[in-house]
Design brief:
The protein has two domains: 15-77, Winged helix-like DNA-binding domain superfamily/Winged helix DNA-binding domain (Arc Repressor Mutant, subunit A), CATH 1.10.10.10; 82-220, Up-down Bundle (Four Helix Bundle (Hemerythrin (Met), subunit A)). Helix content is 67%, strand content 4%. Strands 1-3-2 form a three-stranded antiparallel β-sheet. The chain has helices spanning 15-28, 40-47, 51-63, 82-103, 109-124, 128-141, 151-173, 177-193, 197-220; strands at 37-38, 67-70, 74-77. Helix 5 runs antiparallel to helix 6 (128-141) and helix 5 (109-124) runs antiparallel to helix 8 (177-193). The radius of gyration is 18 Å and the shape is globular. By secondary structure, it is mostly helical.
Length: 224
């Protein structure tokens, strides 16, 4: 599959961040489909940057699970696998409650204010690839707080990144999931403000299972 025309966001960021955001959005939005070969020189020319930030961005996307490096073809957009996403969500359902219990007492008002700000943007966002990116930022807030990054935080961040492409496709197939997720986000912030550990764990699990169900429905309909 050949490289198509990419939609380029504003350049109010470093070249690496700009390339990473552009490619991630194109993959999550379906502009760069699974199997597309990503040639560094072509990308650099289209995005008007050197090959260095392109190479760095492709490495980041490989870490997120959106791209893989083939020894003969170079960087290639990964095709999606329903068995893989089920494993991703099985791991998240197992590990996210541990993170909730670890951070619920340590989240500050500024963390929760930031989460509310992101959810307000999510509620008005109509571009699904942008919504998915904001959704990743929202959930990243409820991660390890203070004391540096833990292995748990790193594992969960990697799992969220790997799930992003599936989330994007499931939203295409089930648009009503967006307002449902936004409502759950608002409730989650309230539960964290109330330091309601059991409530936050329960809602986190329901949120994850609901997303997995939407992805499985999309798979059954042939979207994934």
């Amino acid at each position: 599959m050949t490289l198509g025309k990419l939609t380029r966001p504003g350049r109010s960021r470093t070249a690496h961040e700009y390339v990473l955001a552009t490619l991630r959005s194109a993959i999550l939005g379906g502009t760069l489909a699974g199997g597309t070969r990503l040639v560094q020189t072509e990308l650099a020319m289209q995005l008007e940057v050197s090959t260095t930030p392109v190479r760095e961005a492709l490495r980041d996307l490989a870490t997120e699970g959106l791209v893989f490096f083939d020894p003969h073809r170079g960087a290639v957009v990964r095709s999606l696998d329903i068995d893989e996403v089920r494993e991703i969500y099985e791991l998240r359902i197992t590990l996210e409650p541990l993170m909730v219990r670890r951070v619920v007492e340590r989240l500050t008002g500024s963390h929760l204010d930031r989460a509310e700000e992101l959810n307000r943007r999510l509620e008005t966002e109509t571009n699904l690839s942008v919504w998915v990116e904001l959704n990743r930022e929202f959930h990243a807030i409820f991660s390890e707080v203070g004391g540096g990054e833990s292995r748990l935080a790193g594992i969960l961040a990697s799992l969220r990144d790997s799930a992003s492409a599936y989330v994007s496709l499931s939203l295409e197939a089930r648009p009503q999931q967006v307002p449902e997720a936004n409502a759950e986000h608002a409730e989650l912030v309230r539960l964290y403000r109330d330091r309601d550990v059991d409530g936050a764990v329960d809602l986190t699990l329901r949120h994850l299972r609901s997303t997995l169900t939407a992805i499985e429905e999309a798979h059954e309909r042939g979207v994934i």
